Amino acid sequence: MFDAWKLEKKGKTNTLLLIVYLGLKWKLLDKVASNIRTYDHPDIEYIINLPRLKRWLHRDKFIKLFIFDEALSHLPSRTAMSRKNVSVMTLFAELSKGHGRMIFCSQIDKVDSSIKDSAFLRAIFYKDSKKVMRCQSDLFPPLIFTHIPKTPIRFDPDRLAEFSEVEGVVYSDLSLEYKVALMYVENNSMPKIAKELGVHKEVVRRTFKKVLGAWLKSQDIEILARENERE
Fold first, then answer.
1. Residue 50's closest CA among 32, 66, 63?
2. Following CA atoms 133, 136, 140, 143 in sequence, which dihedral angle do they give, to the nearest 10 degrees?
């Protein structure tokens, strides 16, 4: 099961965690992990990086589900072949071997076509509102769910779902300089970076200038060192 969601503040995280709650309650799932921070629920493992996710996936032969929330922010379609995207694409191929499934939560029209390949995609769920959801799949007739209730699983609706390619790195803990640099190399424009980070575009411009200056300085030092070696 590899799903994608269309999001516009329509209660997607609530519905994701409701699916988790019902899957565990009805014993359809043995283990669940997510990059959504939940509270008072020991059956949901909090995983926010690829190495730990891969270890969890191959740890045993239990049926597992990983909820990948805010996936678009971690895998922007404009950089589909970035190192992180390639790493996650290899993870898709490993899912079945690890008896795993994934719910990929994002805006379907902005997801790269390689991720929507039929080899991975099983169904698409669209959130029309907080209470209504539609499902389309080649495996069964269209479905519609109404009167979707609130999930019993507690979570912070204002907390961003983190995910990193490496262990020990959490995006929210990075400095503004690192965030600007990372977003810039992913081909984001400065106005878009400013909007995403919630700062004025002039702040982004000054920060980028600072980062670029530091990088150029480091390159100059390296070049001088090489010149000295020649002498």
1. 66
2. 20
The region that residue 40 occupies, defined by phi over 0 for left and psi between -120 and 50 for alpha, beta otherwise, is: left
Are 107 and 193 in a shared domain?
A: no
- Rounded to an integer, the average pLDDT of 130-155 is 92
pLDDT at position 171 is 59
The pLDDT of residue 6 is 45
Which domain CATH number covers 208? Answer: 1.10.10
> How would you list the strands of the sheet with 5-6, edge to edge?
5-6, 124-127, 133-136, 143-145
Q: How far is CA 29 from the centre of its chain?
A: 21
Tell me the pLDDT tens digit for each residue of 43-58.
899 998 888 888 899 8
CA–CA separation, 106 vs 104, rounded Å? 6
pLDDT band for 152, please (50, 70, 90 cuts).
very high
206 in a structural domain? yes
Domain that holds residue 224: 174-230
Mind giving me the DSSP string for 72-97? HHHS-GGGTTSHHHHHHHHHHHHHTT
Q: Which residue has the higher pLDDT, 192 or 30?
A: 30
